[in-house]
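Throughout our pipeline, every protein is held as a single compact record rather than as scattered files. Such a record has a labelled line for the sequence and another for the backbone structure tokens. The remainder of this section carries one protein's record, kept here as part of the documentation:
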Amino acid sequence: MIKGSCHCGATQFELDAAPESITRCTCSLCSKRGVLWAYYKPAQFELKTPPEQVATYLWNTRTVKHHFCGTCGCTTYSESPDWSTGTPDFDNPRVGVNARLIADFDFESVPVVVIDGKNLW
């Protein structure tokens, strides 16, 4: 298992594998937070922190739950439908994990996919 946590350690998670690629989205939220996303199926992600201790921000369409640590403020993960086709696929949910929070992961060693979220949504 691959472990990750926010800065203060109050929000912790485990993944079944290190990401093979990461995504940099140019939308206002992702850009301002400096997030590099690694995407997983829900079964590949396990939140080790009680969910009631995680803060959530719902923006715009309210279809993506942007989670962050309520103590230190780090963006930790998101829950969303799969948007890879340009429209939300609610039958295929995914978890986006902030790759910067994965323990001992060299995020510069994998390809970066850029999504033009600034102009798409």
